[in-house]
Amino acid sequence: MIRNTFSILNGIGERLERRLWKNGILTWDDFINVSDLIFINNDKKSLFDEYLSSALRELADGNAVYFAGTVRRREHWRLFNTFKGKAVCLDIETSGLMPSSGGYVTLVGMYDGYDYRYLIDKKDLTPENLQRELSGYKYLITYYGSVFDIPFLQRTMPDVKFNIPHFDVCFGSKRIGLKGGLKKLEIDMGIERDEAVRGMDGYDAVKLWEYARMGSNEALELLITYNKEDTVNLFKIADIIYQRLRSQTGIEEYLS
Fold first, then answer.
1. Where does the pLDDT of residue 170 fall: very low under 50, low under 70, confident under 90, or very high at 90 and above?
2. C-alpha–C-alpha distance, residues 51 and 30, integer Å
3. Please, which residues have CB within 8 angstroms of residue 21's CB and are 6 or more apart in sequence?
4. DSSP E strands: which ranges in the chain?
């Protein structure tokens, strides 16, 4: 989808993007190769050609950080298919309080479509370990993470850098008219949770951490399972939301 995206160009919005598609300009290469466009003056087109040529080089190099800065945040979903093989779903559990009130991250879970890994407070959850884990990825997927998870981590672990494209599925789902939280999306999409944590919510996760701190291995295992379900299911949901967002742009009408 990113190669069909012209809204990365300053002054081109979704309406003009559709006009380009309608006129057979479907990709960055198409735009560069056409000699002139009636609705874009030649000086501006030359600048756009240069910009898109740079973007094509960065895309060929797999430079995700470049696109994190050049693609508007609300359009980062368009990069999903490009970086899907190097994407990670991230979800945190906390002590139940905000950092300003002494709250802290109890567990960070990550799933990349193949493996689930987690870091736990007082064991292996450190800024260095988290950064090391994230350094292997080029695309971040969260649910409401741009509002909660990432700001929480940035306040409690300010040295950890989040400089790759970020697809927040919460806002992506709202753009296609879906309502409710992650668990509601799971139900709507027929995605089932592990029976051991079915029906649990964030409050339960806080209580499980309290029991784990008191020495309950069973509570800790349940907390890990709860977080794993969040991240694993999120990857499936992100794929579905991406496909629906892509369809909503209307690009498929011109590709067929």
1. very high
2. 14
3. 4, 250, 251, 253, 254
4. 87-94, 105-111, 116-120, 139-142, 166-168
Q: Which residue type is seen at 252?
A: E
Split at pLDDT 50, 70, 90, the class of 195 is very high
pLDDT class of 95 with cuts at 50, 70, 90: very high
181 SS3 class: coil
Question: In terms of pTM, does the model score above 0.90?
Answer: yes
Residue 132 structure tokens: 């090391």
Position 119 scores a pLDDT of: 98
Instruction: Give yes or no for a contact between 104 and 126, defined as CB atoms under 8 angstroms apart.
Output: no
* Residue 62, phi-psi category: left (phi > 0), alpha (psi -120 to 50), beta (remainder): left
Place of tokens 């991406």: 242
Quote the mean pLDDT of the chain.
96
pLDDT at 143: 98
R_g of the chain, CA atoms, integer Å: 21
Structure tokens at 61: 């190099």
Q: Kindly report the CATH class assigned to 82-244.
A: alpha beta
Q: How many alpha carbons fall within 13 Å on the CB side of residue 168?
A: 15
Alpha-carbon distance 229 to 6, whole Å? Answer: 36
Percentage of residues in the chain having pLDDT higher than 90: 95
Bridging pattern class, strands 116-120 and 105-111:
antiparallel
* Structure-block tokens of residue 162: 């989040």
Q: Which two tokens stand for residue 133?
A: 């884990």
The mean pLDDT of 15-25, rounded to a whole number, is 93
- Do the Cβ atoms of 139 and 165 come closer than 8 Å? yes
